[in-house]
Each structure stands twice: as structure tokens, then as C-alpha cells.
TrEMBL record:
GO molecular function term, any single one: 3-hydroxyisobutyryl-CoA hydrolase activity
Coiled coil regions in record: none
Catalytic activity as recorded in UniProt: 3-hydroxy-2-methylpropanoyl-CoA + H2O = 3-hydroxy-2-methylpropanoate + CoA + H(+)
Protein name: 3-hydroxyisobutyryl-CoA hydrolase
Organism: Astatotilapia calliptera (Eastern happy)
Enzyme Commission number, as recorded: 3.1.2.4
Alphabetized UniProt keyword annotations: Branched-chain amino acid catabolism, Hydrolase, Mitochondrion
CDD domains the UniProt entry points to: crotonase-like
Record-linked SUPFAM superfamilies: ClpP/crotonase (SSF52096)
Gene that this sequence comes from: HIBCH
């Protein structure tokens, strides 16, 4: 019989993270189902030390991370809190990204099998908690996206590492448009390593499956993904070139993506393209250092605050980007976002 030991501190309030040992398996449950298990700094500060402890614990063989409720694994970071902090110069605007990226790196370099059960919405920060681990298990309920360009940000949490490693221009397409992959397509794209029907993966069943998780390759791309051919239109060295390709093609797919890109922050689009171009040749650690610089550039700018206002606060879906066009975003402006922060750079 498996022994279950709860490691979370007792409290009258429902804990935001549940940390348990089930037999020789460490289990992390993000426990904020009412807000789709959005990741905040308190949760990061609970998950990271426990991961490090289990990594060196001879009585822990594997780690599983999952989300509470039936809707989401983790729908992203607590962006509204970061926005409010950034507006007033609160240190949360630095601390959140710094500690989140340190956690992403710990997952990417974890010395024991790390299994993310992405059964439901998995976006932004939730992607960072899953995609760098050894195994990512999708179900028919999985909905994956990196929608950051819609809020004046960029696909962070190591997006600059894993997205360009998807075959062809799929990663760039996902990064620029925020396109949503669902169900089996998440595995077909190579984001997930395995697919299991949701009803077949209660915790104890998943533990028993761990012994057969082998012969995998990270970020495999399956030719059966419907997006294979249309995504070729994203083969250009500039965002303007991609838009030109789409307009020239004129297909329904191309028209829809042209419309989508027209709604995104022009600055975010250009930062994201350079991020993925650079990240293709960098280690995960170097990508996270780069992305921390980008995060702080976004905190200094205005599009992030305007994007959050339009999409998450007022919900008018009508952001006023500044600059408002791709042509107004100069190469110099983009380069400045990648500049070193000196002593304030992320160190891993």
C-alpha cells in the first residue's frame, strides 16, 4: 500500500500549493482552481525548495506536478499582480520573473524524472512548469498557448528555448500569434511527450505508468499535424516579411493570421522574433538570462500595462500600442531590450 504524507503547512485557509509524498513519488498540486491555478510568487517559493529537497532525497524517485480542479493545469502567471507592482516600482516586478525563471531552470536540469500532467489549460507560466520537464502528459482537455504578444509581453519561461526547437516554423507561429493547440495536437506538435485520456490518469495510475515512459525525444514533431504546410508562411527574417508572405498567400488561414498579428503589440512581435532567432542556438540557462532582460524591458515600457488593461482588466480588447505600427519599432529599440542589466542580470 502506498503511503501518502502531506507536506503542506496546516492552515485554516486553503493552501495554494499541496506538497505530498505518495510512496516514493513527490506530488505537487497547484491548488487555486478558482483562478485556473494561476502561478504567483508565494507558490514559486513553495515549489522550488521542495523540488530541490526531493532531488537529493534517496527516498524520492520521481516528481509529478498537476493542477487542482477539472479546468486547468496552470493558465499562467499572476500577471495582474505583476502589473500593479510594475506601475509603482515594487520589487515584485523583478522578483516574480527572477524566481520563476530560476524554477524553470531547476525543472529543465532536474536529475530525476519530472512528469507534468497538463490536463486542461496550460499557458504562459504553466508552460514553464511543464515543458522543460522530462515528460509532459496531455489529454483531450489540454489547451496549450503562449498568448503573451496580445498583452505586450513575449513568450517567456524558456519559450525562447523550446519554441524554436519545434520543427519548421511552428514555434515561431505559436509565439507570434498565440495560436491554441488542443488535445492530441499538443503531442503531435512535440510540446507533450505522451497523450492519455483524462479519465485514465488518476494519480495512482499515472505512477504505475512511469516505468513505461521511455524511448522519448524532446520536442518531437509529428508530420500529421494539420498546421505543417500553412506554417511555412512564417519563414521570413522579419515580422514585416511574415506579414507580406501572409498577404501574398491570401488563403483563409493566411487572412486569419494577418488579422491576428494586426492586433498584437508591434514591439512584442519584433522582440519575440529576435528572441526565438537567438534562442535557437542558446542553452536553456542562457535563454532565461536573455528573457529576464526582456521582462525588465517590458516592465520599463508601456505596452505591457496597456495590454493587461485591455485584455484582463477593462476587457475592451482594444489596446492602444505605442509604437502602433511595426514600421515604427526600430531595430535600435529592439536591441535595447536585449541589453545587459549588469549586476541586476539573472544568475543561474
Amino acid at each position: 500500500m502506498l503511503k501518502c504524507v502531506c507536506l503542506s503547512m496546516s492552515s485554516h485557509a486553503e493552501p495554494e500549493v499541496l506538497l505530498e509524498k505518495v510512496g516514493r513519488t513527490g506530488v505537487i498540486t497547484m491548488n487555486r482552481p478558482k483562478v485556473l491555478n494561476a502561478l504567483n510568487l508565494t507558490m514559486i517559493r513553495q515549489i522550488y525548495p521542495q523540488l530541490k529537497k526531493w532531488e537529493s532525497d534517496n527516498e524520492t524517485d520521481i516528481v509529478i506536478i498537476k493542477g487542482a480542479g477539472d479546468k486547468a493545469f496552470c493558465a499562467g502567471g499572476d500577471i495582474r499582480a505583476v502589473t500593479e507592482a510594475g506601475k509603482v516600482g515594487d520589487s515584485l516586478a523583478q522578483d516574480f520573473f527572477r524566481e520563476e525563471y530560476i524554477l524553470n531552470n531547476a525543472i529543465g536540469s532536474y536529475r530525476k524524472p519530472y512528469i507534468a500532467l497538463i490536463d486542461g489549460i496550460t499557458m504562459g507560466g504553466g508552460v514553464g512548469l511543464s515543458v522543460h520537464g522530462l515528460f509532459r502528459v496531455a489529454t483531450e482537455k489540454t489547451l496549450f498557448a503562449m498568448p503573451e504578444t496580445a498583452i505586450g509581453l513575449f513568450p517567456d519561461v524558456g519559450g525562447g528555448y523550446f519554441l524554436p526547437r519545434l520543427q519548421g516554423k511552428l514555434g515561431l507561429f505559436l509565439a507570434l500569434t498565440g495560436f491554441r493547440l488542443k488535445g492530441r495536437d499538443v503531442q503531435r506538435a512535440g510540446v507533450a511527450t505522451h497523450f492519455v485520456e483524462s479519465k485514465k490518469v488518476p494519480l495512482l495510475v499515472l505512477i504505475s505508468l512511469c516505468s513505461v515512459f521511455k524511448d522519448y525525444q524532446p520536442f518531437i514533431y509529428f508530420q500529421s499535424l494539420v498546421l505543417l504546410n500553412p506554417v511555412r508562411l512564417f519563414s521570413a527574417s522579419s515580422v514585416e516579411g511574415i506579414v507580406k508572405n501572409l498577404k501574398t498567400d491570401g488563403s483563409e488561414f493566411a487572412k486569419k493570421q494577418t488579422e491576428t498579428l494586426s492586433k498584437m503589440s508591434p514591439t512584442s512581435l519584433k522582440i519575440t522574433l529576435k528572441q526565438l532567432q537567438a534562442g535557437a542556438a542558446l542553452s536553456l540557462q542562457d535563454v532565461l538570462v536573455m528573457e529576464y532582460r526582456l521582462s525588465q524591458a517590458c516592465m520599463r515600457g508601456c505596452d505591457f500595462y496597456e495590454g493587461v488593461r485591455a485584455v484582463l482588466v477593462d476587457k475592451d480588447q482594444n489596446p492602444k500600442w505605442n509604437p502602433s505600427t511595426l514600421e515604427e519599432v526600430s531595430n535600435q529599440m529592439v536591441e535595447q531590450c536585449f541589453s545587459s542589466l549588469g549586476e541586476k542580470d539573472l544568475t543561474l
